[in-house]
Amino acid sequence: MLVTNEQLKSLVLKNGLIDEKGFAQIEEDAKNAGYTIAETLVEKDIVSDENLGILISDFLKVPFIVLAKTTIAPDVFNIVPEKMARKKKVIPFARDAAGVKIAMVDPSDKELTSMISKKIGLPVIVFLATDQDISNTLRIYRKDLQRTFDQLIKTSEIPMSKIVDLLIDYAYQDKASDIHIEPEEKNSLVRFRIDGILQDVLFLPKSLHDQIVTRIKILSRLRTDEHLSPQDGKMRINLEEEEIDVRVSIMPVTEGEKAVLRLLSSKFRKFSLIDLGMNEKDLKKVTNAYSKTYGMILSTGPTGSGKTTSIYAILKILNTREKNITTIEDPAEYRIKGVNQINVNAKTNLTFANGLRSILRQDPNIIFVGEIRDSETAGIAVNASLTGHLVLSTLHTNDAATALPRLIDMNIEPFLVASTVNVIIAQRLVRKICEMCKGTRVITKEELLKNLPQEIINKYIGEKNSIIIYQGSGCKICHLTGYSGRIGVFEVLEVTKDIRDLITKRQDSDVLLQKAIEQGLTTMLDDGLEKVMKGLTTIEEVLRVTKIQNK
Fold this sequence. Notes:
Blueprint (H helix, E strand, L loop, with lengths): L4 H10 L5 H14 L3 H7 L5 H12 L13 H4 L4 H7 L1 E7 L2 E6 L5 H11 L3 E5 L2 H11 L3 H8 L7 H14 L2 E8 L3 E8 L2 E9 H14 L11 E8 L4 E11 L2 E9 L15 H11 L4 E6 L6 H12 L6 E5 L10 E4 L8 H8 L6 E4 L5 H12 L3 E6 L7 H7 L4 H7 E13 L4 E7 H5 L4 H8 L4 E7 L10 E12 L2 H8 L4 H10 L5 H10 L5 H8 L5
Parallel strand pairs: 2-3, 10-14, 10-15, 11-12, 11-13, 13-14
Antiparallel strand pairs: 1-2, 4-5, 4-9, 5-6, 7-8, 8-9, 15-18, 16-17
Helix pairs in contact: 2-3, 10-11, 14-15, 17-20, 20-21, 22-23
């Protein structure tokens, strides 16, 4: 580490960025999220990544460089091989009569600078750059995927192992969650799911498709002689940055076999609830709920809305040595150290309901049920929460209020639902505006009226005829989409005494929602529009995920 936590504390206090109490909270948040103090300061918007770099460089008396604002000649960039650049976080960015200027995350690495100087026969001038800036720059200057593969398949012996490894490595660098390898009539199409959206990234000759799928089957310990039945497996891949698990699904389609690889990176899952986009008011409701030793916390939304990630963020906070936390999932995607995670297994009759019964005999404090799918699981989960256990689970409902009648539909008595559920989190994921190509635009009230109700518009812009909002113009970092990364939009329904009374009277979700709004609930639409006003996302994204229609 370049500076100690005490030195970092002194720097941010001296510059008036935070007070003693605020820094103590940052330390606590960093510990809970598994982040460094520096990462947490940036995540909490106490200081920008660039300004923190400037503070540290001034302290270390090392010049600072922002690579995002620097044009680098290809011959200079290639002085250090890409593999080493990624591993050591070092980028040469300029060359003149004095020598070669290099940006480093750790300028104190004399062994590396000596090696580079010896290799090129020139003096090396060291600059400090931030980890994020170097990572983004490496993505910009990385060779084009299609060109890389075109060169690779021109060789006399095409190495299948290298093709699969490269696909996974490129997907990881692009922060893709999934790789789709699809046989078409004339080609094999490779698509990456980035920020929830599938993007075409590569066309390969159809003749290579079967060989690639066979290589994936071998790595996943699947049958290579089976081509007419679906197969599921898992593999572990060593990358420069980390060892990742890859979940594999092979499915026969009309043109051959389609392979889908899901990348399960723990590095990209270091999320706290604030990182996920939850505001302070909603965070307080959730904190009150998980601070209790009993009751239920439910996370709702469609597949891919980040429900499990939110629950994992809570489990990481609750995960201490004096608590026994057990989960039953289908499957457990991410390993949490110190938590007992069980996979549902239909072959051995290990269902959610049967697993939950067994968990209750394991003396648990906290239980996470991956999903409440049926009346039996719902009944056991409710009874567990009544008998002194904190139960967390997910439900497939469109909003927070609908989850309550849904439990009643599963034959849970209304008074039991009312007395056990502490809080319900409903959420969607929206794409964040790319910081590298972010700009402003003016949007008029007339444009807004095409998609939003009048009362919503009045709430946010009042009597104004137009407002300034943000958007990304598209760059290499964001694959010309204008978006990079995702953030959640939430509504958190706290089950108050009034809500309990309405549940007991079997009131429908509309009545429950109205009462919750009266008591201060922020809907997903409102939360999304607040993020639009802060420049985090766009109106189009919020409308896409909330599916609001102007009536």
